[in-house]
Amino acid sequence: MELRHLRYFIAVAEELHFSRAAERLHIAQPPLSQQIQQLEAELGVELFQRKTKRQVQLTEAGQVFLQEAYQLFAQLSKAIDLTQRTGRGEKGLLRVGFTSLVTYDLLPVILRRFREHFLEVELVLQELTTTQQEQALFNRRIHVGFAHPPLEDNTFNQECIQQEGLILALLETHFLARQENISVRSLKDENFIMFPRHLGPGLYDQILSLCQQGNFSPKVTQEAIQMQTIIGLVSAGMGIAIVPSSLQNLQRAGVVYRTLEEKTPLVETAVVWRQEDMTPVLREFLQIVRSVCGELISEKGDRLH
Fold first, then answer.
1. What is the mean pLDDT of residues 61-72?
2. Model pTM?
3. Half-sphere exposure (CA, 13 Å, Cβ side) for 84?
4. Which has the closest alpha carbon to 274: 115, 111, 158?
5. HEC states along 122-148?
6. Backbone angles phi, psi at 303, to 5 degrees
7. Coil, strand, or helix at residue 159?
C-alpha cells in the first residue's frame, strides 16, 4: 500500500463517482478503478458498493477506512510541517550559558528578540562562569555561551559582541564619591571586594593590572561569586569594587558608580559555540545576537555624536 492508493481512495470516497474522481486526480478512469481494486484486495474487504459502473457508495468498512485515511494525512501534514520548521530553526531546543555580567544589558535584549521570532524554541538558560561554560560546551551540555575571553580552549568559535571599560562602585557616603573621576592611585588603602580568580581569570587579571598601574596590589577583604553580590557587599559598606561599566544598570541603595581617570582595560564579551555542533536553531540564534549587538553599537555611536 502506498500513499497514492490512499489519495485515490479519498477522491473516490468524496466524489462517489469514478469518472469525477479520475478527473479530479488528472488520471484516466480505468487505472483508477484498478488501483482501488488492488487496495481492496490488499485489505481483504470491499470499500465501495458499485451502484452503477461508475457510481459507488462507501461500505461500512469504507467509511471507517476513510476516517482513518483522513487522520493519516493529517498526521503526515503535521510531520512535514514540524520537520520543515525544525529545519528552519523555528522549533527545537537551545541551551544557553551566560555570566551574570551579560544580564545587565546584552542578554535580556537578545532573549526578548529571539522570543519574538521563535516562540516554539525551548530555551534552557544556565548561569555559568567563563571556565564553566568552556567545560559545558566541551561536554555538549550547552549549545552556546556568553563568556569573557581569553578562553583556555582555542578550538571554540567565538565572536566579540561587546567591549566595555571598568568603573568604580562605592558607597555614596564615601569621601571619594564627591569626585566624578577618580584616580586608581587614590584606591591604594581601600578594601576591595572581588571574585575568586579561578572563576574569571581574564577580568580578575585586568583589575589587578589596573591597580598595578597605580603602584599597588588591591587589598581584597571580601570575595563573592556573583556581580550582584559584590554590589550588595559594597552597599553594606564592606569595601569598594572595580567592575565593568554595564554594572551601572544594577542600581542598589547607597551605591554610586564613578569613572576612573586612567584608561582602563576593555572587558570583552564573546558569544562562543562549537562549529561542529551547529544546528538550525543555533544558526538563527547567532543571527539574532549579531543583529542586536550591531544595533546596540550603532545606538552608542549615535549617542556619542
1. 91
2. 0.70
3. 6
4. 158
5. EEEEEECCHHHHHHHHHCCCCCEEEEC
6. -65, -35
7. strand
